[in-house]
Specification:
By secondary structure, the protein is an all-beta fold. The chain has strands at 2-18, 22-26, 29-40, 49-55, 70-83, 89-102. The radius of gyration is 16 Å and the shape is globular.
């Protein structure tokens, strides 16, 4: 049993780390995903961080990006509810990114 709630946002962040590309094959065919850790691009003591996941051909958007780059991201956070085999309800949050692009800074 799956329940899903979705929120969409576009925000400006700084890349902290780009994690390795993950690839595999499932019953539906080949898949790939890659995660990137971004940090709120704000002058605050404890900036918020997000772990964003890009799937399929969207992973190509990370080509040429590196830690420290300022990027605009468009993403949706999704909360999924699962019922385990023993009847417990469990929640999982995913943050799926569908657009990430470098912000050209003018000095």
């Amino acid at each position: 049993n799956k329940n899903k709630t979705q929120t969409q946002k576009t925000m400006n962040y700084r890349i902290k780390e780009i994690l390795p590309l993950q690839q595999g094959t499932s019953e539906r065919g080949n898949w790939q995903s890659q995660e990137v850790i971004v940090e709120e691009n704000a002058n605050v003591q404890y900036p918020n961080q997000l772990l964003l996941r890009l799937r399929g051909d969207k992973t190509a958007q990370l080509t040429g990006l590196k830690a420290g780059d300022v990027v605009d991201v468009m993403y949706a956070s999704t909360v999924r509810a699962y019922t385990t085999k023993d009847g417990r309800k469990v929640y999982n949050t995913e943050i799926n990114c569908w657009s990430i692009r470098k912000v050209e800074q003018v000095f």
